[in-house]
Design a protein that fits this description.
Rossmann fold; alpha/beta; 32% helix
Length: 182
């Protein structure tokens, strides 16, 4: 009896990391970079931090030529296998730059059926819960597939010179969330 064996090359899933912070020295961006470094053997990461440079969304602008930053973002979303969004909470909501970026994708469908892991990263409890509610509603409107949600706090990690270190329990929590994306 002969058997057929298929040897496949495992390709890493492409994850788009989106930083929702408007800050130039964002701890949310640093957490994305830490995730990228920590899980680089499992995933190919693309990290975007250009949301603050996007023009404001106006529905009438969808009929014309899109700003190159918007076109690039939409392509990154479309080409990604999954998305991780890390955001702070501003005045009990999403930062305006993140909401604006999501609005640019409302009618065009780049987020549809895309697995997304939203993470809020705020100074301490209970901050982050309102932003999480808001992002979940926005992602549902975009027809994305929210695989889980994580609320992390700066008290959960170690900071040294703007770099973040993760302890083993936070690393495993994040690994569990990321595994749901594939």
């Amino acid at each position: 009896m002969s058997g057929l064996f298929y040897i496949g090359i495992m390709t890493k899933k492409k994850i788009l990391g989106i930083c929702g912070s408007a800050s130039l020295k964002s701890s949310n961006l640093e957490l994305l970079r830490t995730l990228s470094d920590e899980f680089d053997s499992e995933f190919d990461w693309i990290i975007t931090n250009s949301l603050r440079d996007f023009p404001m969304f106006r529905p009438e602008d969808l009929d014309g030529e899109l700003d190159p930053l918007i076109s690039e973002f939409k392509s990154q979303v479309e080409e990604a296998d999954a998305i991780v969004i890390i955001t702070p909470e501003y005045t009990h909501n999403l930062p305006a730059i993140l909401k604006n970026a999501l609005e640019w994708c409302t009618a065009s469908g780049e987020f549809a059926e895309k697995p997304v892991l939203p993470i809020t990263f705020t100074p301490a409890e209970p901050r982050g819960k309102y932003a999480m509610r808001s992002i979940i509603e926005s992602l549902k409107t975009l027809d994305s597939r929210v695989v889980s949600q994580l609320e992390l706090y700066k008290t959960d990690v170690e900071f040294e010179d703007y770099q973040i270190s993760l302890n083993s329990s936070i690393t495993e929590l994040l690994r569990s969330g990321l595994e749901l994306l594939v």
